[in-house]
Amino acid sequence: MVAQALLAGEETELVRKAIELAKAGDVPLLKFLLDRLLPKERLIKIDFPWLDFSDQAIDRMEAISRAIAEGQITPSEGADLSRVISDYARAIEVWDLSRRIEDMEASLNPEIKK
Predict the structure, then answer these.
(1) Cβ distance 85 to 60 under 8 Å?
(2) From residue 36, how far is each of 10, 29, 40, 41 by CA, in Å?
(3) 3-state class (DSSP) for residue 41
(4) In this structure, is the dihedral angle defined by the CA atoms of residues 53, 60, 46 and 87, taken in order, positive or negative?
């Protein structure tokens, strides 16, 4: 709290000084400022239809691979997107299998309600 009280009103001047020092060649300060000011992630927009069936994930993965190859997204961004698509497709598969099991159980034992 004492440090905050001492810095009150000095923030703008201190940031300007830090920028000045970084521009003058203070590499650690430059790295510090860039690390704090530049976004770590960016919004990625790849246009493909909603995933309704797990086998559609193949088309989405192809679109992601193309975006990487064309330089629209980085390989690490592509890997992150691929994980999202893969996890979503897996969730669809689990839901579908669960529904099929319930249907089979219901046909074997009509007393089981859905």
Answers:
(1) yes
(2) 19, 11, 9, 12
(3) coil
(4) positive
72-110 residue pLDDT tens: 999 999 999 999 999 999 999 999 999 999 999 999 987
- The DSSP call for residue 43 is -
pLDDT (tens digit per residue) in 28-70? 988 888 888 777 777 777 777 788 888 889 999 999 999 999 9
Decide: helix, strand or coil at residue 109: coil
**CB of 96 within 8 A of CB of 54?**
yes
Token pair recorded at residue 21: 């020092």
What is the reported pLDDT for 5? 76
Nearest to 43 by CA among 85, 73, 83: 73
Tokens 């993965």 belong to which residue?
61
